[in-house]
Amino acid sequence: MADQARNGDDPETRWARQPPGPTGLDPEAEALYRLLLSKTDASVSQLAADAGLGTGRARDVLMRLVDDGFATMVADTRFRAVGPDTVLGGRIASQLGEVLDEYEALRELLEIHRARPGSGGERGWEVVTGPVAIRSRLRRLKADAERSLRTFVRPPMVLPVPEAALHEELQARGVRHRLLFDRSVLDIDPYADYLRHALASGDEVRFAKRLPLKLLVVDDRTALMEEGGGRPKAIVTSNRSIVELAGTLFDQLWSNGIPATTASSSEVRLDEDDTVLLGLLIAGLTDQSIASKLGIGLRTVQRRVRELMDLADVDTRIQLGWHAAKNGWVP
């Protein structure tokens, strides 16, 4: 009863805690944090009203934000957000450090295996050289998949658009395919067909700001890693330690990737002015032309484009165009 009185919520109607998102917060806490970020500081009652929560529940969520370092109390009933650069910067740096450590460990293991005497088969790895040979090996590895495929996609790519027949066969067998694209792919026209095919085929697609290498992990039993620089060359291995480390590297970067399509992004609706501006931008007009057509200043156009890029969480205008098209931001 005491907990019920403190929370101000009926236990029968209290919402279940949802899994955390990329920020480490569950959706309810992240929504309240975003609301708090938009204010200098705010009272519990004000935030509860704005968020559509009961006062007791809003206070509980705010106290969780305080405990997790996302907010501070400026008075008994007033809270202030901690800047995202402060609270998340250290975490992101730590996660990036872990990923880089895993990648370096992967490279170290590969070097150890390369140095061992004996044939490639005895060492548990094989070097495949040249784009035609790599394509052939990739196709064979994919065709043999039984449960899952995990792929890093980054330029330059040796693969053509995936074969429809093989892709349909894999889907019919229930093979799960997850592709993590380096975001730079969005800026390179020749790779657009590959990305469109992945999205249209129902594969799980996410974007990463930077991928350290090209990678394919098949069923947790085989990994292919393509080395950068010079003539295309790939390493294929079934060594369990290396495959597990490659899978861990993929899962770490996948968990921090941005989904190509999400329910939350589809809920974003632009106002009419931003929709018009975005349509003109996608049509190829310069900032100055957009400013003239809309009767606003050049700096206003540039500021609003930057705000739209921040809203889409992208780095370039080309990426903004992809995001807008996928999420219905423009007619």
Ordered list of secondary-structure elements with their pairings:
Blueprint: H1 2-7, H2 27-37, E1 42-43, H3 44-51, H4 55-67, E2 71-75, E3 78-81, H5 84-115, H6 120-123, E4 125-129, H7 131-143, E5 148-153, H8 164-172, E6 176-182, H9 192-200, E7 204-208, E8 214-218, E9 222-227, E10 233-237, H10 240-255, E11 258-259, H11 263-266, H12 272-282, H13 287-294, H14 298-312, H15 317-326
Parallel strand pairs: 5-6, 6-7
Antiparallel strand pairs: 1-3, 2-3, 4-10, 5-8, 7-11, 8-9, 9-10
Helix pairs in contact: 2-4, 3-4, 5-10, 13-14, 14-15
Largest sheet report: 8 strands, mixed
Count of strand segments = 11
Q: Between the first and last Cα atoms, what is the distance in angstroms?
A: 52 Å
Q: Strands of the biggest beta sheet: in what spatial order? A: 4-10-9-8-5-6-7-11
Quote the beta fraction: 15-25%
> Which range best describes the helical content: under 10%, 10-25%, 25-40%, 40-55%, 55-70% or over 70%?
40-55%
> What is the CA-atom radius of gyration, in angstroms?
24 Å
- Given the structure, what is the number of helices? 15
- How would you describe the shape? globular
- The CATH homologous superfamily of the largest domain is named Endonuclease Chain A
Instruction: Examine the coordinates and then state which fold CATH places here, giving the name of the CATH topology of the largest domain.
Output: Endonuclease, Chain A
Number of domains: 3
Instruction: Give me the strand/helix succession.
Output: HHEHHEEHHEHEHEHEEEEHEHHHHH
Poorly predicted spans: 1-16, 118-123, 262-266
Query: What is the level 1 CATH name of the largest domain?
Result: Alpha Beta
